[in-house]
Design brief:
Layout: E1 6-11, H1 22-52, H2 58-85, H3 92-103, E2 110-118, E3 124-133, H4 138-155, E4 159-168
Helix pairs in contact: 1-2, 3-4
Length: 178
Amino acid sequence: MPCTSPRRMKMRFPPLMPSTSALAGTGRLFSRQSINDELGLLAALIGTLFIVWGRPIADPIASIAVATVIAYNGVKLFIENLSFLLGRSPGPEFLAQVERVARSVPGVLGVHDLRAEYIGPETVHAGMHIEVRRGLPIEEADRIAEEVEQRVHEGIPSGYCFIHVDPVGKGGNIHVHD
């Protein structure tokens, strides 16, 4: 009986953005957060002082200043993460490397529908269909999928991968699922 059940595996992937250290990135994040908090606090303090001094117009001006800081940070955060929200691909070189590793496993006759996307700075989700001989016992197809998993895991830096096993019919035709 041919195997068409999906297979999940863990993989390591290269980071999207090379960084000198995660700690430095975290430090910059906290520094930016602190500066933004201080700017908002400063605007609120100035607005309060002007109200105490008899200038009530300062309250809405201070509110606008605080809202501007919040809006600026929101837009900046959105722009920084837009590629993750849209599912940015790690690129053709990466996909070719995954395909090469999968095809190197004996019993894999082909790879198709290979897709990958970043879901964070260093996390990639990927999926692929591997083709095996039609009529191959499910145990053998499972062994092949496990070997693909092992080789991809060893050869490629982490995320998740979905592997679907497809039987290939006579003449290389892939079985179409109804």
